[in-house]
UniProtKB/TrEMBL annotation:
InterPro entries: C-N_Hydrolase, C-N_Hydrolase_sf, UPF0012_CS. This is Carbon-nitrogen hydrolase. Residues 1-247 form the CN hydrolase domain. Signal peptide: none annotated. GO terms for molecular function: hydrolase activity. PANTHER family: DEAMINATED GLUTATHIONE AMIDASE, NITRILASE-RELATED. Keywords: Hydrolase. Belongs to the carbon-nitrogen hydrolase superfamily. NIT1/NIT2 family.
Length: 272
């Protein structure tokens, strides 16, 4: 199976419209890959908080349309990263009741929406994304011909219980788009490898390059195998990281080293 991670540079001197068109062309260039992955909030930048409301889209908005067409043109499965989604509850007013979400979109090779995922863990510690966006509450997996994707986003990477839930739902390949800052890059690679080892899964973690809202991005998108070995890693700049991997390795690893069978669930909280 061939995956291409598009480590897109998100810079303030490029408009959202221009970047959307450019990224759609990058996706089309990956014809021949099985899976293409984009970063988190690549239209606005993950730290450009003031842009979230201004650039928020309905689920089937301009980014959805552009990425569905690009996936169909290239004939690839496309994890289109995430966008700031503007959702209006049933019976609500678009102006007054809309909720923003950090929403990932996954398209089939025919351009159909295969899944969407609203980020569960919002970053910011009572500011930024944590207060500007609502939290998702559903685990999402996507069945491809050769593997089952488990979908997570950026800050989710710090919460291993989410990934355990994805594995319990059948995930074999964990896909993590992100807008991870350079100042915590060591955490990015460490956590990607940890999630791969503890879940005996492939991890495809795709970040952004460039600087947005004054925050330099880590880049260094990474693909890790179920033993924690790094199969490929990007540098700091915009780059297409392409890697071939065998999804059957997951089942083989879990059979030869069946650690997941020894999980102990339902432990009582410690007594004080």
């Amino acid at each position: 199976m061939r995956a291409s991670l598009l480590q897109v540079a998100v810079n303030e001197d490029e408009s959202v419209h221009s970047r959307r068109r450019r990224v759609a062309d990058l996706v089309r260039d990956q014809a021949g890959a099985d899976l293409v992955v984009l970063p988190e909030l690549w239209t606005t930048g993950a730290f450009a908080y003031e842009e979230f409301a201004a650039e928020a889209e309905p689920l089937e908005g301009p980014t959805y349309e552009a990425m569905a067409k690009a996936a169909s043109d290239a004939g690839v499965w496309l994890h289109a990263g995430s966008v700031p989604e503007r959702a209006v509850p049933a019976g609500g007013s678009a102006a007054e009741d809309a909720i923003l979400y950090n929403t990932s979109l996954v398209f089939s090779p025919s351009g159909e929406l295969a899944a969407s995922y609203r980020k569960i863990h919002r970053f910011g510690f009572d500011k930024g994304e944590a207060v500007l966006m609502g939290a998702g509450d559903e685990l999402v997996t996507v069945r491809l011909p050769d593997t089952v994707l488990g979908v997570a986003t950026c800050y989710d990477l710090r919460f291993p219980e989410l990934f355990r839930g994805l594995v319990d739902a059948g995930a074999e390949t964990l896909v993590v788009p992100a807008g991870w800052p350079e100042r915590r890059r060591s955490h990015w690679t460490l956590l990607a490898r940890a999630r791969a080892v503890e879940n005996q899964s492939f991890v495809l973690a795709c970040g952004t390059a460039g600087t947005h809202a004054g925050v330099p991005q880590a880049g260094h998108s990474i693909v890790v195998d179920p033993w924690g070995e790094v199969l490929a890693e990007a540098g700091p700049g915009e780059e297409v990281l392409t890697v071939d991997f065998d999804p059957a390795t997951v089942a083989g690893t879990r059979e030869r080293f069946p650690a997941l069978k020894d999980r102990v669930l339902g432990l009582d909280r410690p007594r004080h």
